[in-house]
Q: What sequence folds into this?
């Protein structure tokens, strides 16, 4: 990403050009004046903390030793790790200032911002995943589901990147428990190394074993689950106008399709209206294919994990193999295609979808493909 390359600290001075960064990004300027909990953030507002975290990263020998491309990606991540705090911060009844949910919302905001900037998909999703998980090393050793969390982070990004992000985050603060948190981060690093998921994705015996590991608690990640699938369901995910019908015609021409757009047209339901009847009809069609053991395509936007889980959970219950295909195009291409459709989706509806957009990841299916349709 050129804009981040130009702003990333570089040898020999390793200086953070904060004024240039503020000028480049409105979301950085939005951090100014946003208060934080004084117990954990006595350094000042969110912008002050973010600047200090970036400066702390630039001082870390481990970060300086990374290849230039990895340095840029990590710098962008630290710069964006609290991007959602201006929208999540509130004062509780007892006077405490909290920013609950800022990691999850940050994931969504990072995806939108980097999509609009034209970032490569894998690069963007790596940064978004780190932002989503950036608090994990602080409290991970207290979690009973730590193994699944660490494995998921390794599949979406890298845990050694997560460790560097968390280290810069805590060193960019003025608070009394810095040493305790630094120790927790070090223990998380050791745990990931022991679990073979520190600097790369955790390996599984098969894609079927990986899929069921993330669907069942207390499952041995090394258990080679018997593959008893009896059909393949291709579940599409993508914003309106991304080209799902075109992809199906080119890649699954002879496979039955459960299409929400087609059902919507048959029922005369507006894209911005109540979709209850459309969804019910789609699930009925899907069940007919599943009962018959027949492979099919599920054509819907499915832009959130919860929507996809409804599909994948149903398919898994019928012993189906799940292929998730995430289609995307640049914003201007997507908008142009949508306007050319016989029944365009209103821009306001697309904007709402973009704000909720979660990219499919390897924990959700047997196979996940990210496809550009530009």
A:
């Amino acid at each position: 990403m050129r804009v981040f390359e130009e702003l990333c600290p570089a040898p020999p001075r390793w200086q953070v050009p904060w004024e240039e960064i503020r000028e480049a990004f409105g979301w950085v300027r939005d951090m100014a004046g946003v208060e934080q909990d004084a117990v954990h953030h006595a350094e000042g507002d969110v912008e002050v903390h973010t600047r200090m975290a970036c400066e702390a990263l630039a001082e870390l020998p481990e970060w300086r030793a990374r290849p230039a491309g990895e340095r840029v990606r990590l710098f962008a991540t630290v710069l964006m790790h609290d991007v959602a705090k201006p929208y999540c911060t509130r004062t509780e009844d007892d006077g405490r200032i909290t920013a609950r949910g800022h990691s999850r919302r940050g994931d969504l905001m990072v995806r939108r911002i980097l999509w609009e900037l034209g970032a490569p998909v894998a690069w963007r999703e790596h940064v978004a995943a780190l932002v989503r998980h950036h608090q994990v090393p602080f409290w991970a050793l207290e979690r009973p589901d730590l193994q699944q969390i660490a494995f998921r982070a390794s599949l979406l990004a890298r845990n050694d990147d997560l460790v560097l992000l968390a280290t810069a985050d805590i060193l960019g603060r003025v608070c009394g428990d810095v040493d305790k948190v630094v120790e927790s981060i070090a223990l998380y690093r050791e745990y990931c190394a022991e679990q073979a998921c520190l600097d790369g994705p955790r390996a599984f015996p098969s894609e079927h074993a990986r899929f069921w590991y993330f669907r069942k608690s207390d499952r041995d990640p090394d258990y080679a689950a018997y593959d008893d699938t009896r059909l393949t369901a291709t579940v599409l995910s993508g914003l309106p106008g991304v080209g799902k019908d075109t992809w199906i015609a080119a890649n699954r021409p002879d496979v039955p399709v459960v299409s929400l757009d087609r059902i919507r047209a048959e029922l005369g339901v507006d894209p911005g209206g109540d979709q209850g009847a459309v969804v019910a009809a789609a699930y009925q069609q899907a069940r007919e294919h599943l009962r018959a053991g027949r492979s099919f395509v599920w054509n819907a936007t499915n832009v959130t994990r919860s929507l996809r889980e409804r599909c994948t959970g149903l398919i898994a219950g019928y012993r189906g193999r799940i292929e998730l295909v995430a289609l995307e195009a640049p914003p201007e291409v997507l908008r142009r295609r949508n306007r050319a459709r016989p029944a365009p989706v209103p821009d306001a509806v697309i904007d709402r979808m973009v704000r909720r957009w979660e990219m499919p990841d390897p924990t959700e299916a047997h196979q996940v493909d990210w496809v550009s349709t530009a």
Summary: Residues 231-372 form a domain with the Rossmann fold fold (CATH 3.40.50.300). The CA atoms of residues 56 and 220 lie 38 Å apart. The two ends are 18 Å apart (CA to CA). The longest strand covers residues 320-328.
